[in-house]
Design brief:
It is a single chain. This protein has 144 residues and is α+β, with helices and mostly antiparallel strands. It contains three helices and five strands; from the N terminus they run βαααββββ. Strands 1-3-4-5-2 form a five-stranded antiparallel beta sheet. The longest helix has 16 residues. The protein is elongated and about 55 Å long.
Length: 144
């Protein structure tokens, strides 16, 4: 696969389609099984509260992975992401109810980096319950 978005057609300031990602306790259990990260702060409410958290929290790497989906869906190819990094600023709190949590992600092209390499920097904003959960969330994307 290659990126479906053309470097020549993208401008700085281009907004990517925003997306929302629901997170339930069941989602966290499935992610724990797939990742091997069975830390009880991600599934055991009693333990999470004993260590000072308000409730069970989503895995940081899960949150990071959900956020980059905005970029990979836009580019049309997950392999187009050449670099990706974030700072974890707040946890995604996942209550034990029918609703769970919601990660809301928006992104925009912040810079055209290299005409020869056809790369752009995309800055992402990831929010949950009105709070930014990822800081300095940036991806370098190689476009068509």
């Amino acid at each position: 696969m290659t990126a479906k978005i053309s470097y020549d057609e993208v401008e700085v300031g281009t907004e990517l389609p925003a997306q929302s990602f629901p997170v339930s306790r069941a989602t966290l259990v499935r992610y724990a099984g797939a990742s091997g990260d069975f830390n009880p702060i991600h599934w055991n409410e009693k333990f999470a509260k004993e260590v000072g958290l308000p409730d069970v929290i989503a895995h940081g790497m899960f949150t990071m992975a959900e956020a980059i989906r905005v970029v990979t869906d836009w580019a049309g190819d997950p392999g187009a992401v050449a670099e990706y990094g974030v700072r974890f600023t707040k946890p995604v709190i996942v209550p034990n109810d029918e609703t769970g949590a919601l990660i809301e992600v928006s992104a925009k092209v912040a810079a055209k980096l290299d005409d020869d390499d056809r790369t752009v920097r995309v800055d992402l904003t990831a929010m949950s319950t009105g709070q930014k959960v990822l800081g300095m969330s940036r991806a370098v994307v190689r476009l068509a």
